[in-house]
Specification:
With about 280 residues, the chain is α/β, with parallel strands linked by helices. The protein is about 25% helix and about 25% strand. The chain is built from 7 helices and 16 strands. The chain has helices at about 15-25, 45-65, 85-90, 160-165, 170-175, 210-220, 230-235; strands at about 1-5, 30-35, 70, 95-100, 105, 110-115, 115-120, 130, 145-150, 150-155, 185-190, 220-225, 240, 245-250, 255-265, 270-275. It has a 6-stranded mixed beta sheet. Strands 5-6-11-12-14-13 form a 6-stranded mixed beta sheet, covered by helices on one side. Strands 7-8 form a two-stranded parallel sheet. The two termini are about 25 Å apart.
Amino acid sequence: MNIVFVTDLHGSAAKYRRVLDVAQKNGAAAVVNGGDMLVAEGDLHGPQRDFIEGFLSPYFSKYEKAGIYHLGFLGNDDLKIHDAVFVEVCRKYNFAVNLAQRRFELKGFEFIGMNWVTDYPFRLKDRCRRDGPGYMFQGQFGAGLLSTGEGFRELADRPAYAEGLPDMGQELAALPKPLNPAKAVYVIHMPPAGLGLDVISSGERVGSAAVRRFIEKNAPLLTLHGHIHESPGMSGVWKAKAGNTVCVQPGQAKTTLTYVLMDLNSMAMERFEEPV
């Protein structure tokens, strides 16, 4: 079964259109979108909702017509207050699947998604979690923010707020369990630590130790990641192994489209970077 994996499109209509074209030309059964789907500049409240309703809804209708599944979820740059709108739009179409904290079976393969990320310096904290007990918070660019229907709410005590939430390990443990791990594909926006899939522009490695432990413990067939756009360019690595599990993080640049075309039956895969 062929799939196209892409991540971190951040509302680029040109990239979205090209992805569907790639899927159709290569006989893909599904496009898997690894998160951060919406526009990420300016006031995010109105524009992100408009993108879901005005672009993604008619875009998903093209998948319905083509008989290609779109499996995806909103990411850390996509406001959590828009989750309900995204779910509502997905429910309009048989071929559009919200994969956040859910399991979906397709042609014998099980796709399980998770869109939480470890806490970072950026202000939006809607989907942030501690990596585990004793997690050391990074320096921050300002007070933490949560999205609300009336705008952003500033967190008076971000560490205390974070301590009251499940950590990454707990969120991973709460995910639906695959019936057959050998056919399981986890789509986890946050990359694992220690595999070269998590290198930021400074050279620092920021991957999740909890995600790495989860992969090694559960040994799925494949994990798909995103979040750190520049990592493949920094490390030279877009595909790695944790035990017997293949882990993929293609990255994404602003001026080009990066995606991975793969055959899940043979596990043959190739990364492409193209102008759009």
